[in-house]
Description:
This protein has helices at 2-8, 11-35, 43-50, 54-75, 80-98, 108-132, 157-167, 169-184, 189-203. It is globular, with a radius of gyration of 20 Å. By secondary structure, it is mostly helical.
Amino acid sequence: MEKMKKLFMNDWFFIAIMVLMCAGVMGGVHMYLTYGTGYMNVLVGGQLLQSGDYAQAAGFGGGFLLARILEGPLVGILDIGGSIMMGVGCGLVGIMYSIGLGWMLENFVMSLIAGAVIGACIGLIIMAIRKLVPNGVQAGGSDIMMGVGHQLANWLAPLFLISALATSVPLGVFGALGGAVAYKFDKNLVGGIIIGMFIAAFFWPVSAA
């Protein structure tokens, strides 16, 4: 187990995971644009690409990618849906078509290679930012990360509780209990509040209206 942990916690292993994920997403984009299936993103992103509105796709998905690259080293975990599926699968694809590199996605093997190169670049950027972030700002050793997971999120805990109470009293009460448990075990307060709200919502469903 120690050898496995040492392997998985290496910086290069994270970059390797990024290479595989981005290659898979780009392969999925090729499948979607060619056969109409296999897209690993929300439907609106695929519709933007299919309609040829690459500028909107680049702006829509590129913002997610930029935010997640900056957030990842602080939170300690990368949001796959926003950064990879949305940012790469929509934003970077839109940019590639806008600058005349869309031909790389017309071939399956080439799309995998392009995705792998993009994944390696993103992984290197994230690790570089993580090395430059001062100690005490980035999250380290957290077992559970939900929503905003870095230390600065603890200051948002009262806002989460107010929002929960405004929705329903049980959500607010269970959210407060979840936050108290998280505080007791020195975990992130927001994560504890959200878990408490999830438990309450199971017994007291919240109306969509």
